[in-house]
Amino acid sequence: MDIRLEGISHHYDDFEVLRDVTLDIPAGQIVCIVGPSGCGKSTLLRFIGGLERPRSGRVVQLGQAPEGCLNPLTYIFQDFALLPWRSVAGNVSLVLEDHGIRGTAAREIIEDVLARTKLTDFAKALPKQLSGGMKQRVAIARALAVKPAVMLMDEPLSALDSQTRELLMDDLVDLWSRQPFTAVYVTHNLAEAVRLGHKVVVLSRRPGQIQEIVEINKPLPAREFGDPELDEPQRYLWRLMREEARAADAELMNV
Amino acid sequence: MSEIHTDETKGSAGAERQPVAFRGGGFAPKNRRWIGVLVFVLLIAIAEWGTRTGWITALTLPRPSDVLETFGELYSSGLLFKHLLPSLSRLVIGATFGVLLGICIGVLIGLFSVMRSSLVPLVAALFPIPKIALLPLFVIWFGIGEGSKYALIAFGTFTPTVVATYGAVDNVDRTLIRMGQSFGLSWLSIVRKIVLPGAMPGILSGLRISLAIAIILLVAAEMLGAEYGIGAYILEAGSLYDLERLFVGVVILSLLGVIVSAGIGILERRLLGWRV
């Protein structure tokens, strides 16, 4: 299943957030969206998953979601969004209950996704007992449980320290290599973008427009920490963004 | 590192050495249970000693040992439970009605714009009314029997519960609700599994206030046409200036308050163990 954004524009009251964004998200690829703060990249992600409506333009889904897919467009949030009163297993079970999956069927799915995110031993733990990295792995497990067609990741590693971030990036690459998934990955961290993205979409500052789409051809599993081959695209991206980021930083907050 | 060290010992030879003063600490009160008990014991001991030495006259304050004796008589005559049981049943029935209705209305206000715009001003108008002032009205509406007493207590617990509940619903983390929507949870599931548990801390702390108000209103409710009940017992003792019996009644109400508060404490520990 592919996703296509067609001429998306949006404004809140009298300031324009996004202008005419057209973008293809092909199945099996990770598309990273980078841009200076306030450029509307998270807003764009909310449009893709149907949590907000753009003023003009539309998001279309090409083809049917694969069979067995419970929630085609599934988010992973920056702040994890785990229910603090439910255990790790309970948080995963939450998204299955509404599909009538209970008992053994649910237990099988939960065991499987917890094993894939290396959380099997923590099934009964409450979120308050977990580190930030583990919390985000629970959120990833929860997303995997509904067998999404497209994962919508909103700065998923931004709330974590840099070591945890590296570990989780390895985990994401592992997950993708075992079973390629489609993802839109919003981040402000260029190292994450070049590490995980097949395509990196650079947005300009507000109103966000697509400035350039950079393709990174090196296969995902072959990329590694401090990879010199990734330096060049990262430097290129930074050159694209630098002036925009400086200008965005100097703008007055208008929220 | 070693260089810095030698440097420091050299420097310290001439200069004055003094430790950095500690200035953190404080602002973190802890609960020490026995101090609370000690305060009670101390106050009662002072009252006992004062009344025995005649420093406090019998008209000012009854002697604690006399109050205890009166309580013993009340218990042995079997009148204690005759007074306590009707009071407890009024409290339980009235407060249950008020609290349940309050939680329902509070959740509706928290979730729907129309409910919010229409009911918030109404609740604000009802809240400051001294419910005791409406007692005659309740008697006309619900009769002189148990109905008016239930209604008074229910009404008194209803308003603070509504206010606490909708505040608590407002405070539920919106990102959790967004998450629920993004996974396609039904409206009812979001309310049941996300909004209500998320609002539980606020609802329970509201419960502390509304149940204390329920105990206050119990006495008011028993002012009219109640033969038995702690409130009736206190009012009768008051009109006779029988301070010992008055204090027995007051102490029972205090104990009731402490028990209710401890009960909510237990409920909080069981339901809110997930809080950081």
Q: How is this structure best described in words?
A:
The complex is a heterodimer of chains A (255) and B (276). Chain A is built from 7 helices and 9 strands. Chain A has 255 residues and is α/β, with parallel strands linked by helices. In chain A, a hairpin with a 6-residue loop joins strand 8 (199-203) and strand 9. In chain A, helix 2 (88-97) packs parallel to helix 4. Chain B has helices spanning 2-14, 33-53, 64-76, 79-111, 113-126, 135-142, 146-170, 174-182, 187-221, 230-239, 243-271. The longest helix of chain B has 35 residues, at 187-221. The two termini of chain B are 40 Å apart.
How far from one another are the termini of chain A?
Answer: 36 Å
Strand portion of chain B:
under 5%
What percent of the residues of chain A sit in helical stretches (DSSP H or I)?
25-40%
Classification by helices and strands of chain A: alpha/beta
Biggest chain pair interface: A-B, 23 and 18 residues
The main pleated sheet of chain A reads as: 6 strands, mixed
- Output the structural class of chain B: mainly alpha
- The span between the termini of chain B is 40 Å
Tell me the radius of gyration of chain B: 27 Å
Ranges of chain A where pLDDT stays below 50 over 5 or more residues in a row are none
Q: Average pLDDT value of chain B?
A: 89
Number of helices of chain B: 11
Overall pLDDT metric of chain A: 89
DSSP helix fraction of chain B: over 70%
What is the count of helical runs of chain A?
7
The low-confidence runs of chain B, each spanning 5 or more residues with pLDDT under 50, are none
Order of helices and strands of chain A: EEEHEEHHHEHEHEEH
> Radius of gyration of chain A, Cα only, in angstroms?
18 Å
| Largest beta-sheet details of chain B | none
Record field, number of beta strands of chain A: 9
